[in-house]
Write a structure and sequence with these properties.
Structural class: alpha+beta
Strand content: 5-15%
Helix content: 55-70%
Number of helices: 9
Order of helices and strands: EEEHEEHHEHHHHHH
Radius of gyration: 33 Å
Number of strands: 6
Length: 294
């Protein structure tokens, strides 16, 4: 199963008889799933059904949708004036004008500018009658939305694999340098003691060995590097498994940050510190990309 991006757009249409339904869905990043659908006033009772359909294909992100119902071109039907809604609007406007002491100067042209006065003449009174048509349009929009999310998801996966591969190379370079740190410290300690004591004075090798052992234990990053290697293996497994994995990848990135921070504080080596900084920068960039994964 391939991974998907959280962003995308899909449009679907369905027609039957005199009715045409157009559904548009757009998806953007969000930690949790959320969905908002704009519907004709007469079809608002279908909102829950539409959201349930969207949930079957989208598990994370914010989906914004719109449903438009109109007369099919071949039907030749025109819009009709919703007189009940118009009457309610007139009553509301007149009540507001009276309450505010304003002149009631309603005109036909002003009334026609009020929202939701025109509706397709073909729209049935019972929303459930048009639901099969709406469902087909929603499914078509979801298919197109998913196709775009899969395309973007494939690009994201390729990019992230490259980023994590580069990070793994940096971690291996750190692992190669780490064993030499205590050796360099021992040589530095012997050199400084020789400079302080001068020629002919011997230093107890056991004393130096104890000091180096304490230092080596303090700067040992083998456990951190082992856990990092494990995290890289988990990342590969996540990509190979696919599916909704954005939260998992984000968690792994957080764990990697923890391990590399500890490595940087313990390493006590200039070259390792440089590699740690490069690792952090690369990991931050990878984590930003992970925020786009469902």
């Amino acid at each position: 199963m391939a991974i998907k991006s959280m962003t995308g757009f899909g449009r679907g249409e369905a027609s039957e008889g005199a009715v045409k339904v157009v559904v548009e869905l757009s998806a953007v990043n969000r930690k949790q799933f959320d969905c908002s659908v704009s519907l004709p006033r007469e079809l608002t009772s279908l909102d829950a059904k539409i959201q349930a359909l969207v949930r079957t294909r989208v598990t994370r992100g914010y989906v914004k949708g719109s449903v438009t119902v109109s007369a099919a071109e071949q039907a030749g039907a025109a819009d009709t004036l919703d007189l009940a809604h118009l009457t309610a609007q007139i009553d509301a406007v007149r009540a507001a004008a009276q309450a505010l002491g304003l002149t009631d100067d309603l005109t036909a042209s002003a009334l026609l500018r009020l929202p939701d006065l025109l509706r397709p003449r073909v729209l049935p009174d019972d929303p459930l009658e048009v639901w099969p048509l709406v469902e087909r349009a929603v499914q078509a929009a979801l298919e197109n939305l998913e196709a775009m999310r899969l395309r973007e998801g494939g690009a994201l996966e390729r990019d992230l694999r490259e980023r994590f591969t580069a990070l793994e190379v940096l971690s291996r370079e750190i692992a190669e340098l780490a064993p030499a740190v205590p050796i360099a410290y021992k040589a530095m300690l012997e050199r400084r003691l020789a400079e302080l004591l001068g020629d002919g004075q011997l230093v107890d090798p056991a004393l130096i060995a104890r000091e180096v052992a304490v230092f080596a234990d303090r700067c040992d990053v083998s456990e951190e590097l082992t856990r990092l290697a494990s995290h890289f293996g988990q990342v590969t497994k996540v990509f190979d498994t696919g599916g909704p994995c954005g939260r998992t990848l984000d968690f792994i990135c957080q764990e990697m940050f923890r391990e590399i921070n500890t490595t940087g504080s313990k390493a006590n080596d200039a070259e390792i510190s440089r590699l740690v900084i490069a690792f952090k920068a690369g990991l931050e960039a990878a984590r930003e990309q992970v925020q786009n994964v469902e």
